[in-house]
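Researcher: I'm preparing a figure for a lab meeting and need a structural model of a single chain. I don't have an experimental structure, so a prediction will have to do for now. The sequence is pasted below. Please return the structure as C-alpha cells so I can convert it later.
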Amino acid sequence: MKKRDNFYKQNTKQKILIVDDEMINREILRQYLENDYDLLMSEDGQQALDLIKEKKTELSLILLDLMLPSISGKEILKQLKNDPETEKIPVIVMTADNDSEVECLELGASDFISKPYPSNAVVLARIHKTIELHEKNETLQETERDSLTGLYNKEFFFRYAQQHDLYHQDEKMDAILLNVNRFHMINERFGRSYGDDLLRQIAAKLKKIMIDKEGIVCRRDADTFMIYCPHLDNNKEIYNAAASGFDKEVENIVRLRMGVYENVDKSIDLERRFDRAKAAADTIRNNFNRSIAVYDTAMHEKEMYNEQLIEGFPKAVEEKQFEVYYQPKFDIQNEIPILSSAEALVRWKHPELGMISPGVFVPLFEENGLVLDMDNYVWTEVVEQINDWKNRIGITVPVSVNVSRVDMFEINLVERFKELLKKYDVTAKEFLLEITESAYTEDANQIIEIVNDLRSIGFKIEMDDFGTGYSSLNMISSLPIDALKIDMGFVRNAFNNGKDTRILEVIIDIAKYLGVPTIAEGVETKEQVEALKEMGCDIIQGYFFSKPLPAAEFERFLIEKKKQLEA
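Model: Understood. Here is the structure written out cell by cell.
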C-alpha cells in the first residue's frame, strides 16, 4: 500500500469534488487540500450533479455540504447511491447539523465532518483514510468478483456462504446450480461477444432476485451459476426470472436447466452440497421437457453407491476383482463363418455388490480420472492372456481392447503400448485397438496424430460405435482407421422397426468406399446374420455366436475352433 501511495504521489493527484455554497468554506478546504489533491468546486446542487455525471470515473471523493441551492445535499446523496454508476464514489458529508449524521450514514455517506472545520491535519487524515478504505474495498471487490458478470467468484462465494451458516445455523438453505444447455452452440452461432452478453443478462437477473430472497449468487465457471439462499417452497420463481426476457432471435434457443438441493445437510461441505445440485441438473441434460430437477433420495443412494465404487477401486485392482471377458468376432463372408478375433470386455465382480455392469462403472471412472488405471489393468491382462494362449495351447487369436477418449490424451500412450508388446512378446497384429468415434470429433488433429503413431508400429485401429459421434463424411474420409464397428443400436433398430436396414447399408457402403471392413455388434439371430452378409458386412459379434465369456470358458471355445483357425 505504501508503494502504491508513493506511486500516486509521484505521478498524479487524486481528484476531489468540493460541494458547498459558502465561498469561505470552499476556500478553507482549498487551502487544506490543494497541495495533496486535484480539486473541483461546486456551489450549487444541480451543478454538482452535472459535474459528478461528467467526472464520475475520475472522482476519488466528494465533500458534500447538506444545505445547498436547488438540490439539497441529502437528495444528492440519495441520487448518487441509487445510480450504479456513482454509488461507489465515497462521500463525506460536511454540516453543522450533527443530528443529521446518522441519517446521512444510512443514506450511504462514508464519513461525517462537523462545521466549523477541525484542524487541517484532522480533515486531511479523515479524507486520506476514507479514500484509502474505498480503494482497498475496490481492490477486494475486484478480487472477489467474476470479471465478466460482476458476481462473486467461486472462492469468495463459498466464504460468504460459510459465514452465513456460521451465524444462521438453524436456517434451512437451498443449494442451486443453474446451467445453460449447449451454450457453446450459442457462441458458435452468434459469436463469443453475444454469448458473454447473454451471461451478463442472466447474472443481472439472478443478482436482482437474490436481493429479494436474501441469497447470494456466483458464476462458477463458463455458463454455470451457483445460488445459496434460504429455502424456497417454489424454486421455479428463480428459474423463471433467469430464463425470460431474452432477444427474440435466441429466446427459443436459450434453454436453462436448474438442479436444486433443498434443505441442505450442513454437516457436509459446501462443495458437496453443490455437487448434489449438479447431479440433479445432470439428470435433465438435453431434456427439453424438464427444466428443474430436485436432488432426492434416489440420487443420494446413487451418489453413495458411486462413492463406494470409487473408494473400492484401488482394492479392486489389487485383488483383481476386475475380470476380462472375451466375445468372439466371426468373419461371415466365407461359406462357414470363421473366428477372426475377439473383443475384451471388463466386468467387476465386487465382493459385496456382486457383478457390476461396465455401463455403471466405466462412465464413473471416466469422470473421475480412474479410467486410465482401469484400462491399463485390462490391457495388461489381455496381452498376458494372449501370450499364455500362444505358448500353452498354441493358439493365437487377435484381441481388441477399448482405448477411451481420456486414454487418447495420455502423453505416454504410444510408449505404454510398445512396452506391453515387448514385455509379453505380443505383436501389434495380435493386439487390436478400438477407439470410439466421438474421440475423433473432440480434438481431431491430436487424436489423428496419435493414431498415426500407433498404426506406424503395426496396430490396427477399429473405430468403435460408428454412427454415434456425428463425424462429417469429409472428416471420415481422412481418418486413419482399419475397420468400422457399427453400433449395436443401429442393428437393433434396423431389425426391430419394420426391418428398415437402409442405415446399415449406408454405413457398409461408407466402409467399402474407405476400403475397410465393417464389424456389426449386437447380432442375435440367424436372420440378422444372413441380412448383414447380403449387405456386405464382413465381421459379426453378438449372442448369435457367443456371449462374452470369462478367459477359461473362452479358452475352451478356442480349442473347439482350433481346426478352423488352422485351416
